[in-house]
Amino acid sequence: MAFIEVVGCSVHLPVYGVNNRSMKGAIMSAVTGGRVAPTSRNITVVESLKDVSLHLKVGDKLGLVGHNGAGKTTLLKLLAGVYEPTEGYVRSQGRIANLLDVTMGMDYEATGVENIRLKGHLHGLSRSEIQRKIEDICEFSGLGSYVNMPVRVFSSGMMVRLAFSVATSFDADILLMDEWLGVGDADFNAKAQARLAEIVNKASILVLASHNSEIIRSNCNRILHLEHGRVVSDLPAMEGGQ
């Protein structure tokens, strides 16, 4: 049974080589953001999340809302295992699909097919699972013979199409998204939107950060509001102000 449990989690991100005073001024002048905790002359710590707790079970579709710098992306990266909590702990069960940065981990010197294998392993697929999916991934990407060429000759749009095709090629229990993805030209984007809708519907748990209130309303039944790295409210969607 899929679940996510976050208990008393804080995430402190060190920033090296930046003057504490200038960093503090930059963050304080913003609408919102993590608190600055000076530690030394050349290291500044941004407290991106502070004492966050939540529990997600099967059927939860959680929308993350808040101003830029409120901690939404940091929370998603915490759930994805990209960040370790400075305090507290995260437990989860179920296969996680991470759509936070679909091109992350691509090898520019490797071919498209080799990158399919690499990205598949990064998403937790077994060698046999990847092999079974290669043909369908290549076909969905629409890249033709380019999949046998080094990724360094791809345009940025071609790289995103390949990475998106891999990241959405398997069913996940838990789906993490930072904004709703738009990919490629009109024809490919139509296919991509249909596939996104399909995997969102299939996922047991969804965590979606977005500034678009319509997307949140359409896909989420629960809304978590963050400010300055703290949870302000965690309410059913009808009560969450969206």
TrEMBL record:
Which keywords does the record carry? ATP-binding, Nucleotide-binding
What cellular-component terms does GO give this entry? Answer: membrane
Q: Which residues form the ABC transporter domain?
A: 34-240
Q: Name one GO molecular function term.
A: ATP hydrolysis activity
InterPro entries, A to Z:
AAA+_ATPase (IPR003593), ABC_transporter-like_ATP-bd (IPR003439), ABC_transporter-like_CS (IPR017871), ABC_transpr_TagH-like (IPR015860), Bact_Polysacc_Export_ATP-bd (IPR050683), P-loop_NTPase (IPR027417)
UniProt KW Nucleotide-binding keyword: yes
**Sorted alphabetically, which PROSITE patterns does this protein's record hold?**
ABC_TRANSPORTER_1, ABC_TRANSPORTER_2
Q: Which Pfam families match?
A: ABC_tran
Keyword Transmembrane helix in the entry? The reply is no
Q: Under which name does UniProt file this protein?
A: ABC transporter ATP-binding protein
